[in-house]
């Protein structure tokens, strides 16, 4: 079985929040998630526990695609060092930097 994407997880947790608002009995809520989302009972209980802690619906992120660029060796080394130091992924670092650049230049960001 493949792993759920971030968007799928967010949608499932938002659905779990909605189910918890309508169903009082936890086993009934888990059964509903199993049926609606096609997940195991174990995962349904995990999602329900997580959904209980949410104060608001989770934002559903845009789908991501692979985008290949060529960067200098030194810049890649610096990016990797920054990623290690911050615990962020290379994709997250580049996404944030490009978003800021586009926002400053009046582009979409």
Brief write-up:
The protein is built from 5 helices and no strands.
Which residues sit in consecutive blocks of at least 5 with pLDDT less than 50? Answer: none
The total beta strand count reads 0
- Percent helix: 55-70%
The sequence of SSEs as H and E is HHHHH
What's the number of helices?
5
Q: What is the CA-CA span between the terminal residues?
A: 34 Å
Average pLDDT figure: 93
Class computed from helices, strands and strand pairing? mainly alpha
Overall number of structural domains: 2
Largest sheet: none
**Principal-axis shape:** elongated
Strand content: under 5%
**Rg, Å, rounded:** 19 Å
Structural account:
The chain has 109 residues and is mainly alpha-helical. It has 2 domains: 6-53; 73-104, no CATH class. The chain contains 5 helices and no strands. The chain has helices at 6-22, 26-37, 41-53, 73-86, 90-104. The longest helix is centred in the first third of the chain and has 17 residues, at 6-22. The protein is elongated.
Keywords, please?
109 residues, single chain, mainly alpha
Summarize the helices and strands and which ones pair or pack.
Elements: H1 6-22, H2 26-37, H3 41-53, H4 73-86, H5 90-104
């Amino acid at each position: 079985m493949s792993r759920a994407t971030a968007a799928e997880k967010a949608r499932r947790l938002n659905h779990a929040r909605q189910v918890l608002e309508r169903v009082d009995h936890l086993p009934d809520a888990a059964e509903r998630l199993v049926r609606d989302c096609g997940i195991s009972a174990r995962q349904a209980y995990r999602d329900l526990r997580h959904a209980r802690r949410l104060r608001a619906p989770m934002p559903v992120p845009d789908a991501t695609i692979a985008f290949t660029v060529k960067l200098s060796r030194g810049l890649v080394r610096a990016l990797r060092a920054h990623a290690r130091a911050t615990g962020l992924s290379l994709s997250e670092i580049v996404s944030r930097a490009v978003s800021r650049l586009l926002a400053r230049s009046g582009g979409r960001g």
